[in-house]
From TrEMBL, chains A, B, C, D, E, F:
<dbReference type="InterPro" id="IPR039377">
    <property type="entry name" value="Mn_catalase_dom"/>
</dbReference>
<dbReference type="InterPro" id="IPR007760">
    <property type="entry name" value="Mn_catalase"/>
</dbReference>
<dbReference type="GO" id="GO:0046872">
    <property type="term" value="F:metal ion binding"/>
</dbReference>
<feature type="compositionally biased region" description="Basic and acidic residues">
    <location>
        <begin position="241"/>
        <end position="255"/>
    </location>
</feature>
<feature type="binding site">
    <location>
        <position position="69"/>
    </location>
    <ligand>
        <name>Mn(2+) 1</name>
    </ligand>
</feature>
<feature type="binding site">
    <location>
        <position position="182"/>
    </location>
    <ligand>
        <name>Mn(2+) 1</name>
    </ligand>
</feature>
<protein>
    <submittedName>
        <fullName>Catalase</fullName>
    </submittedName>
</protein>
<feature type="region of interest" description="Disordered">
    <location>
        <begin position="229"/>
        <end position="274"/>
    </location>
</feature>
<comment type="similarity">
    <text>Belongs to the manganese catalase family.</text>
</comment>
<feature type="binding site">
    <location>
        <position position="35"/>
    </location>
    <ligand>
        <name>Mn(2+) 1</name>
    </ligand>
</feature>
<keyword id="KW-0464">Manganese</keyword>
<keyword id="KW-0106">Calcium</keyword>
<feature type="binding site">
    <location>
        <position position="149"/>
    </location>
    <ligand>
        <name>Mn(2+) 1</name>
    </ligand>
</feature>
<dbReference type="InterPro" id="IPR009078">
    <property type="entry name" value="Ferritin-like_SF"/>
</dbReference>
<feature type="binding site">
    <location>
        <position position="66"/>
    </location>
    <ligand>
        <name>Mn(2+) 2</name>
    </ligand>
</feature>
<dbReference type="InterPro" id="IPR012347">
    <property type="entry name" value="Ferritin-like"/>
</dbReference>
<dbReference type="Pfam" id="PF05067">
    <property type="entry name" value="Mn_catalase"/>
</dbReference>
Amino acid sequence: MFHHSANLQYAVRVDTPDPQFAKLLQQAIGGVEGEIRVAMQYFFQAMGARGDDKYRDLLMATATEELSHIEFLGHAVALNLEGAPVTVQEDAAKDPLVNAILGGMNPRHLLSSGLAAMPVNANGVPFDMSHVYATGNIAADMMANAMAEGSGRVLAARLYNATDDKGMKDMLSFLIARDTMHQQQWMAVIEELGGLEAMMPIPNSVPESHEATEHSYYFLNTLLDQDAPEGRWTSGPSMDGKAEFSVKQKPEPEGQKPSLGRAKPNSGAQKEQM
Amino acid sequence: MFHHSANLQYAVRVDTPDPQFAKLLQQAIGGVEGEIRVAMQYFFQAMGARGDDKYRDLLMATATEELSHIEFLGHAVALNLEGAPVTVQEDAAKDPLVNAILGGMNPRHLLSSGLAAMPVNANGVPFDMSHVYATGNIAADMMANAMAEGSGRVLAARLYNATDDKGMKDMLSFLIARDTMHQQQWMAVIEELGGLEAMMPIPNSVPESHEATEHSYYFLNTLLDQDAPEGRWTSGPSMDGKAEFSVKQKPEPEGQKPSLGRAKPNSGAQKEQM
Amino acid sequence: MFHHSANLQYAVRVDTPDPQFAKLLQQAIGGVEGEIRVAMQYFFQAMGARGDDKYRDLLMATATEELSHIEFLGHAVALNLEGAPVTVQEDAAKDPLVNAILGGMNPRHLLSSGLAAMPVNANGVPFDMSHVYATGNIAADMMANAMAEGSGRVLAARLYNATDDKGMKDMLSFLIARDTMHQQQWMAVIEELGGLEAMMPIPNSVPESHEATEHSYYFLNTLLDQDAPEGRWTSGPSMDGKAEFSVKQKPEPEGQKPSLGRAKPNSGAQKEQM
Amino acid sequence: MFHHSANLQYAVRVDTPDPQFAKLLQQAIGGVEGEIRVAMQYFFQAMGARGDDKYRDLLMATATEELSHIEFLGHAVALNLEGAPVTVQEDAAKDPLVNAILGGMNPRHLLSSGLAAMPVNANGVPFDMSHVYATGNIAADMMANAMAEGSGRVLAARLYNATDDKGMKDMLSFLIARDTMHQQQWMAVIEELGGLEAMMPIPNSVPESHEATEHSYYFLNTLLDQDAPEGRWTSGPSMDGKAEFSVKQKPEPEGQKPSLGRAKPNSGAQKEQM
Amino acid sequence: MFHHSANLQYAVRVDTPDPQFAKLLQQAIGGVEGEIRVAMQYFFQAMGARGDDKYRDLLMATATEELSHIEFLGHAVALNLEGAPVTVQEDAAKDPLVNAILGGMNPRHLLSSGLAAMPVNANGVPFDMSHVYATGNIAADMMANAMAEGSGRVLAARLYNATDDKGMKDMLSFLIARDTMHQQQWMAVIEELGGLEAMMPIPNSVPESHEATEHSYYFLNTLLDQDAPEGRWTSGPSMDGKAEFSVKQKPEPEGQKPSLGRAKPNSGAQKEQM
Amino acid sequence: MFHHSANLQYAVRVDTPDPQFAKLLQQAIGGVEGEIRVAMQYFFQAMGARGDDKYRDLLMATATEELSHIEFLGHAVALNLEGAPVTVQEDAAKDPLVNAILGGMNPRHLLSSGLAAMPVNANGVPFDMSHVYATGNIAADMMANAMAEGSGRVLAARLYNATDDKGMKDMLSFLIARDTMHQQQWMAVIEELGGLEAMMPIPNSVPESHEATEHSYYFLNTLLDQDAPEGRWTSGPSMDGKAEFSVKQKPEPEGQKPSLGRAKPNSGAQKEQM
């Protein structure tokens, strides 16, 4: 069960409201790299967690923290919108500079939300829950989480560069820090479970008879006029420790030329196809 | 530039067409765990790759292979739909057993595609390109790719269990194998670049002054009535080797109680809010 | 800031797992009438609340409760999926009755989530955050909330009828009850602020000069071969107490016939349009 | 059956074409607060109306009016786009001021529609029909309609403030007026059916035995460090007149700690979860 | 301006209600081949029509007819749902046959709409207005319209085969007929404007200097191991009468190998990319 | 099976990077008129092609070419983004002119992709695969393809006008040329199969008894106050050569007034509806 306390997890200060930066910040709320996504992803993973219950607790604890991140980011968006003129009659709106800024803000911050945060990204596209990755496989889920935190920290770092407001920089340095912790804690689960080598290939529970292992360890070079790019993936032991990497240069197709023959009568095709 | 040769990458055989399994297979084409996603994800990552060009080649080579996976899966869907009755007058349609099967097929395989594959998932929801994760950060992208292949292999393993058609099992064992290779090759890139410890936290190029590092290594226990779940993430060296993990039990909010005050005149609020 | 405690807000018991009912329950999680929607709607309204801060608290308190509803519903979905066969080899899967049930379950519960809840509706369509209605106008928002709870209670009542599992009926009777409270509490806010008459028309802050009030109180009968349906809306005092309702039968258009003239050169039109 | 007459419902005049305002106006066409939504919502409610047929007629009559609103708004968008330069060679395009305006217009008005209205919102996001709320419950639907008109009028009022074009202000004052009527007419249906008290809780047809009424009238205070915000919802008679409101401070969870145990073999989980 | 008259454009009769067929019929309402799409497509094309005003009238007249098609299809869906049991207690619901049918119906017809039509397709996916194709180019739009009617008639023909209800077959034979007329009327516009040869390539107003015409008339054979499929497109006069078709076998890329070099500092990339 | 060679199909040169033009170019990648759409549409049509296999080859060959178009357009987007400042500290960002440009760029090019192409349109809306039209009817599909290429060429022509960069104009003149070929090649298939008259109405395989042919050749004039717009569609032989066009002026509805009666008990409606 969830509870709420009155203060924000972290202090939010905006020295100079900037409606255009409010638009950018939306990416951290409603973007695929944002906080709604991780909050919901960890929440749904927790609800579907099977195995040791402590992972369920871990997921739920961090889902709860991410909800608090949405909360202070939402406040930051609203504070950045404080200065925006709401009518063309206002003096500010007559200033061409302000006009230029307004040209760059999200018009729905004015028209739809009344100067407040929305669950949308920096293009105004609403967040869509298909981005909640939760497979029931703990290793796949941990990778998805580390990935989400990695891209989230990339975003936070770019937002940090996109403002020179001291308050905003302070808040973003906190977000960058928490994303540091979170991406590590998910990889820590993988280490605790035995490490990447033992976890891979995900899922590590596939019976050997279900896999055509003769195809499991070669890099397929589909490049016609180049040799395969050489690297860790072309030779040496595979990451799961079970085989050696190799390369299949200029691969030949192994299947048939597909053909479906004529269309059935009454299938809605043209007569000429039947 | 892309080219095409006539035969499928791998042979597709369907011993007993099964329209319901055709619906399930769609998840491997148009689902978030499916082949359109990885093909497009690697393609867009390749187009945005900066740094050593060999990673661009690696991404493009595998993007190209994934296009070939879409191709043979699409053929498998069509072959599974071969037997489906297209009119209620057909004998097959009068058979209650067949009817039950039809009740479980995707009706748009009949109504919209004329017994062929569609770029949708097992619920008939079209694939949406927001799932193409490409950040311009090679470590974030490699994690996204390993994650995609991990969840793809989980899916392929489940599809393998959901059919007893020998031809389909054979094709899926090939997919399982290629997903094994692909998830490893992306992690191999990370190893080649110095390994996870050196890569993390992603991005590893954030200047230290941009991060409130006092918040970077503690697990925040937002659980009111439990201690933090203990594990690799609560003590010991952090995964990036820079600090020690710790726990913040029963965290106090560090921010203010947010308040936005009264609404501006002409902002579309009620009089009572102004 | 958010916190979490270990137990569910309400006990969840499933006497007979039913994967088909799990699919139906998803509507209460990820449907437009569901709990993700209200949780997020109240949360975003709270973050944008201007005026008396107690309404912000009210919204946040209930947003927090709705998160707990997602949690127990998610558990209910997982429990209903416990019995589902995961391979066609299992005995259960060979039973034609079970097969019929499986034909009616959401295949992604098997393929994607590993027998757990997802943030999707009963058709498997992911929830999309455009359904978070938050305008910054407290009366519009309260109406949106009462509406959401009304349609949520309609859904809960229908789900109650769709199962005869005692545990599920018990849980749903709790949901029905909370939806009773919630729809009333939002209307109570309107009453506290002065009542519907004083609140309407929303927003009640539009200067009179901005409204063509000669068009504000007639019902426009666009029906060619019928008189206007008579009722409370065709005569008597208007709901805002400012005028009398009337009817405009067989309305004549008041505008011009629209015409855009020829297309501009270089605008991408055909020559014949220029 | 529908019919059309040549003139617009209301005259549209644009004194000074403004491509940026064309972008804003799109919210009134293809936004969730816009006219496509209400037209389609009333249309689908009408088609599903059960009970007294006059409500079907009422809904269809107003659906028809809303189609006419789309029509004149669409014309207004096109007229606002008349001045936009279509090539960078045009003089206008060289003017930095014009350039600034262009930076703020929707580029798809130029690229995709050829200077005409589109069924998208002010961010260019296409309208999606999931926003057509139609439950088959007349009270829920009337609330949804009053809500839609309330948020529509908030939008129209904000658009009025965002332009100083006399023609546009005149058209918007008409829209504001019609939204006044429409929100009232839907509440008038509720009054005619017996009033809010009799209608609530929606649906008012739930048998008492289906509701855990001991949970129907308390406000749940999930706020850890504050008392419940006091108001009309914490004491006094409930809005449905059936009970007294109360408060549950510091609520204890009533359910179990959820646990799903180990994962099934062959379910796609990791070995460590089984 | 729009108007409405009470009777349906065409009589709707359902002899044997069939909830599963109601699901299929939804494709004709909310599918991409359905009536909402054409109604809205012609409406938006009409609003953006430039050139001879009679094409605007033609489009608006048919948009209006398509609205009437939605109306009678919506009624057909509701009539097919009449028999569906709404509680598991009803006798019908205990019949395994009925159960099988229910397994195949759209559960949201029960849960969300209360046994009425919805603006969704046969998978329950809501219609999304991005499918309204309206370019401002009359030839492109007429092609889009003929295409929409062609795929609409394919759908109607398949639906005709999917039912043996006499009433439904009668209604669908009317839809098939109107789709016949509509696809022809849009091609008739092209003929009237001079015919396909004169209209093509669309847009026919591109200045010759804007086109690299040396690339305008060859078929590019990207097939590695096959000659180009021969046909009308490989030799003989082009369809626009301006040149001869030819084939480019085994095409060589004409561009450079793309490379973006190193990543910029502060761009969020890894150090190793800079 | 697919293959890749290193060089781009066509050379890409950007003389003056322009982040705002990068945003516009996205429409040609991820817009409904763009290259992802045609690549995927031809690919899925190929996979579902029934009848003469050469059409499958034709479709696959061109699908493959379109993938190469995505590739060079993606490179063009990245090159246009080269100059964009990534931090507000950079000199460029302090220049008000640059600022104005930045206000018009897609912020996610900075925040999400790290200065690279994305699978989104000019509004930042991700491409969604529902736009892949593939019906299994070759004539419907060829019309869809010609339409897609027609609207694609309209777009390319508009993009040509929207830049004065010589390199970009050169690349776009190539795209315009290929769109010329492609729209013609699809119409050539129709001609080869017998021409439009023989192909229409699509599908040409509907048994006559399935069509109410008395409704197949009249134009329905739903305009109340105007005669039908006269043209090729109101008289003369129909396009399929089977009948004469006529007009139905002032059409009377032929159906009943729809009414659904009272709501069923337990259906979630209000008591007053039952």
